[in-house]
Design a protein that fits this description.
Blueprint: E1 2-3, H1 14-20, H2 24-27, E2 38-43, H3 58-62, E3 68-70, H4 75-87, E4 92-97, E5 121-124, E6 129-133, H5 137-152, E7 156-160, E8 163-165, H6 169-179, E9 182-189, H7 194-206, E10 215-219, H8 229-232, H9 236-248
Parallel strand pairs: 1-2, 2-4, 3-4, 6-7, 6-9, 9-10
Antiparallel strand pairs: 3-8, 5-7
Helix pairs in contact: 5-9, 6-7
């Protein structure tokens, strides 16, 4: 296990992770592996991090075959997913939402347990709109789902992807085929963000079931700002407006 703090400074190690660790098993013909290499790195916005302490670089590493990329939403998931990463013989990058370090309200089981990698979790079942996220924004989506229920009478299904790569396509496809409407939410910039991969996959696999264009609610294509952080992040109001847009389509 190799802790890196904060994850915004992971880029000097990009070559070793992408060109060495990710390819070690392949280049040796499965004779060697990385011995359970797990890189822990704080990730995402924290409320005052500005340019160098707020970034979400998961899409950079998700583009590299051989790496597993995992992002928990809370302390309980962090322990279970981290133990799964450590015991996996493939190199894993474990991004920890910075805001989690300030959460002391959740009791984590002291027993040994794992949460399977590449398995999304449906946190709230719904029938009208599918909302997909990971990390900190999952809590935003749960609040938005309740707002949509109370104010619009709309039933939203909330899915925590948990593993970014290789991700659980089956769960999200099943949900979108049921609801016909989907939105993907992440803190990283819009263009080439991992939400684009999910939108493309859902369009390919669920096209005949879609009742509206797939929506993405993300950060903007700019460096992460300091005083404008509340306007940069995909907050509950932007997500709520997107739910209304999906419901009102056509």
């Amino acid at each position: 296990e190799w802790p890196l703090r904060p994850g915004d400074y992971i880029f000097p190690g990009f070559d070793q992770l992408v060109n060495e660790a990710a390819k070690y098993r392949y280049r040796s013909g499965n004779e060697y592996n990385c011995g359970g290499l797990t890189v822990r790195a704080p990730w995402g916005a924290v409320g005052h991090g500005a340019l160098y302490h707020s970034q979400s670089p998961e899409a950079f590493f998700a583009h590299c075959p051989g790496l597993k990329v995992v992002i928990p939403r809370g302390p309980t998931q962090a322990k279970g997913l981290l133990l799964s990463c450590i015991r996996d013989q493939n190199p894993c990058i474990f991004f920890e939402p910075k805001i989690l370090y300030r959460i002391a309200a959740e009791e984590v089981p002291v027993t040994d347990y794992t949460i399977p990698l590449s398995q999304a979790e449906v946190l709230r079942e719904g029938s009208d709109v599918t909302m997909i996220g990971w990390g900190t924004v999952v809590h935003v989506l749960l609040e938005v789902a309740q707002m949509a229920h109370d104010e619009l009478g709309v039933s939203c299904e909330v899915i925590d992807l948990q593993t970014i790569m290789p991700y659980d396509s089956e769960t999200i496809e099943k949900s979108v085929k049921k609801t016909g409407k989907a939105m993907v939410v992440h803190e990283a910039p819009l263009t080439q963000g991992f939400g684009a991969e999910l939108a493309a996959r859902l369009q390919e696999e669920c096209f005949l079931h879609l009742e509206a264009p797939i929506q993405r609610v993300t950060g903007w294509d700019t460096p992460f700002p300091y005083i404008y952080e509340p306007f940069y992040l995909p907050d509950k109001w932007r997500c709520f407006d997107t739910v209304k847009k999906l419901v009102d389509y056509m």
